[in-house]
Amino acid sequence: MRDLKKFYGWTERKLKGNIAETIIENMLEYSGYKVYRFGYEKTLEKIKDIKLNKSFENQKITCMPDFIVVGENGDTHFIEVKYREKGLIKLYDSDKINNLNKTWPDARLIIVSLSEPHFRISRVKDFVRTNKLYNLEDDKFVKINKEIIKRYESLVKKYYGK
Questions:
Q1: Does domain 2-160 have CATH number 2.30.170?
Q2: Is the peptide bond before 117 cis (omega within 30 degrees of 0)?
Q3: Which of 2, 16, 100, 107 fits a disulfide with 65 by CB distance 3.0 to 4.6 angstroms?
Q4: What is the DSSP string of 96-128?
């Protein structure tokens, strides 16, 4: 019974994470960005089940951000998306975020949450240093119109609401 609970807990977290990634991917595309799936689970499917050693190169592979996002002017951003119900980074996120900081420090971390504000962002290296996230609508680099954000907030409420 314990393994079944563990399986369902993992499955639920994975589904919620996939929904968050899809919401962000669609919001960015709707805002005029080209969005490419980049995380190693998606792009390097054949090696995701292989136990890699702890080299820096392998760490860089396993910490690949979820998306490459390209703006109309050619600016490129790496985006890592996390769903956290209350918008708080949990203790088990620390290793992942610290590893992301070592390998992809300029990537953007976007937290999707049921709590308002529903979308918050920070550059990974800034988040590690300050532990602060900012409203997505205030970001200077990934620009998304406030009205578009409001539309996608309704999806967060729909799919994560209780």
A1: no
A2: yes
A3: 107
A4: HHHHHHHH-TT-EEEEE-SSSSSEEEEEHHHHH
The secondary structure of residue 73, as a DSSP letter, is: T
Task: Find the Cα–Cα–Cα–Cα dihedral 76, 82, 88, 89, rounded to 10°.
Answer: -80
Distance (Å) of CA 123 to CA 16, 30, 53, 83: 22, 22, 27, 16
Q: Is 28:35 a contact under the CB 8 Å cutoff?
A: yes
Residue 8 has pLDDT above 70, yes or no: no
**Which contacts (CB < 8 Å, 24+ apart) does range 145-152 have?**
145/31, 148/27, 148/30, 148/31, 149/27, 149/118, 149/119, 152/23, 152/26, 152/27, 152/118, 152/119
Domain boundaries defined on the chain: 2-160
What strands lie across the sheet with 76-83, from one edge to the other? 34-37, 67-70, 76-83, 108-112, 119-123, 134-135
Mean residue pLDDT of the chain comes to 87
**Tokens 């992301």 identify what position?**
100
Spatial separation of the C-alpha atoms in residues 152 and 23, rounded to whole Å? 7
- Which DSSP symbol is given to 45? G
Residues 106-159 pLDDT 10s? 999 999 999 999 999 999 999 999 999 999 999 989 999 999 999 999 999 999
